[in-house]
């Protein structure tokens, strides 16, 4: 094999408490489309951030054309010909297509923008990828798919040799995705290398010359073109022993706590959803990013209003106009964004634990019940094992795991009937994860109904009595614990074929 | 608490320096006057603090002081309303304005700056139109009522505690109690720091924001009544001009962050005192009064900068020890 264009050698990157990348290596040849796949948290984004110059590796080397290079800034990455097409687009949408293509490297004549050269250059860049839009058009007037193509045009006009695409199809329609695939195939013939990151197995299979699988921050294996198939990829992504990590025991499952009938969320107005959750049951919700899971929880917690359909809690029909109504009905939500939605990060442990129950515990005249707040906080610090110097500690200074326990503590003081968890173990260390799992098991045993969304397949499989899999706003399937397997969930989540 | 020591230090330093240079500063008459004006501005600063704690701003306070200032004498003198009716009416107008601001901000999702900027223009223009720019006053009547603003509780032969100070103490205690000892106060502090998390905890954040603007407008109303009684000659075009900026400055000096979620009533009152003492010092030391704004601006900037530097220093220390 000739010298690869870009080569990553034994790159290691540590974060407090986690090794995000552990001696990861990969090669990309010129004109090759390499897909990098793995579960959330496998290390894909960290690796790509290192290539894009956003983060530095702790150890290891990066070779370009066989020469070691240091990528210490985004600018440097651009100079080396590495371009990054983000999941969230990075265009100034108030400017024209041409202005975006030349953003930061505008041709000038005597200090003044040379609009003629900008327009001509943009025209050429757009033609190159076969995108039929006017360079004068404002970016915000284009569809998401076309905006993405503009970003590719921008990268190519800056002479990119390696294009990193992170979940490029996550918000594209089928037709837009087709156009994107055509561009990627065209890039290959022009000798541009593409590192393609996606959860969608079908498109990975279709586009890739080779697939590199990451798992737990390590190389898990790679597949040559002839070996690429759905089963082989899933096998490499998930295959590991998970038997002892998840503390599940069988216990009686009770009455229906939550019954959802034909619920329509604002995010997917044409997709009614129906399901049930029973007391003592842990129901996992799996699916890809953007499948509509968080949107479902937001409606169940009254953050967004349902467009139609019914939500019954313990047999009672409810209409949630705000989280207040949902809390009143006995629902609690541990949200996905811990620091933005779960906690008032600059308040103390006590003030955060007490926040939801202030009104319920108030003393006459609306006075704070500080004694109750303290009792609750002491109980939660003890019960959940929150490691904090004291009740007055500002939550910002706690570790992620302990912050998450504070959020849980806030809700447990409310004695909910239904607990909604959105990515409950995101960004917390292994020890804290295990504690969260044990707590979930304990609460379920005590009769709480738990609905939890997670992008970590492993914990979905390990913790769920039943799994709802969502795909593009629909519940594409429901799998009982007995029928649970990585393959079964991934199959439904990637929409490989829909058997339901 | 630490923040209060900083601003208290600044207040004591200005007091000490001025007294050292010009002993006239310490005459009973001057002290009385300074306390009275501090109290009047302190009252509206409390209101400003509540809005700033939610992360908002109210630019209309000065115009509202002006509007209340012309309405009260008009109703009583020109229309012959009784004292309680007139006072209730102007407080009702203030309350309505506060509710309106709050609803425009929370329901229409307009920015507080814009809403209250429009208020600033509208109430001023309305007050001037209502009066045809004619100066309003209570004449020689209503002496009893005017004692609220100009009266004193004698302490010694020459020194008495101005009545507005009593009003300030009452309002300050109420505000402090509300902010620190009630559920609603905690809601305001929480939503000021993180409105989304507060909403996710089941707090009706919109309603609480309306409450903050109502409190702010009511303090403008109460302050407006006292200011009018004090001057007894209210010029619709200028009465209350810039008062919102004094109130905001006092709140910021007193430890409120414009980002929201932070602030103590005591700190804000000390902040108001710093503003008044500075103003008084400029007069009494014979510094050209044209420099007044420049000096006040410079002192506030220095105060805020010092505060920021101290905080960064403390934060970096904290990081190291962690």
Brief summary of the model shown:
The complex is a heterodimer of chains A (500) and B (322). Helix content of chain A is 33%, strand content 25%.
Polypeptide structure, described:
- The complex is a heterodimer of chains A (about 500) and B (about 325).
- Chain A has about 500 residues and is an alpha/beta fold.
- Chain A has helices at about 45-50, 75-80, 95-100, 115-130, 145-155, 175-190, 200-205, 230-240, 295-300, 325-330, 340, 350-355, 370-385, 400-410, 430-445, 455-465, 485-495; strands at about 5-15, 20-30, 35, 60-65, 65-70, 80-85, 110, 110-115, 160-165, 195, 210-215, 220-225, 255-265, 275-280, 280-285, 310-315, 315-320, 330-335, 420, 450-455, 465-470, 475-480.
- Chain A has 17 helices and 22 strands.
- The model of chain A has no long low-confidence stretch (mean pLDDT about 85).
- By secondary structure, chain B is mostly helical.
- Chain B has helices at about 1-20, 30-55, 60-80, 85-105, 110-130, 145-150, 165-180, 185-195, 195-200, 205-230, 245-255, 265-285, 290-320, and strands at about 150-155, 160.
- Chain B has a two-stranded antiparallel sheet with strand order 1-2.
- The two termini of chain B are about 25 Å apart.
- The chains are: A alpha/beta (about 500), B mainly alpha (about 325).
- The interface between A and B is medium-sized, with 30 and 23 residues.
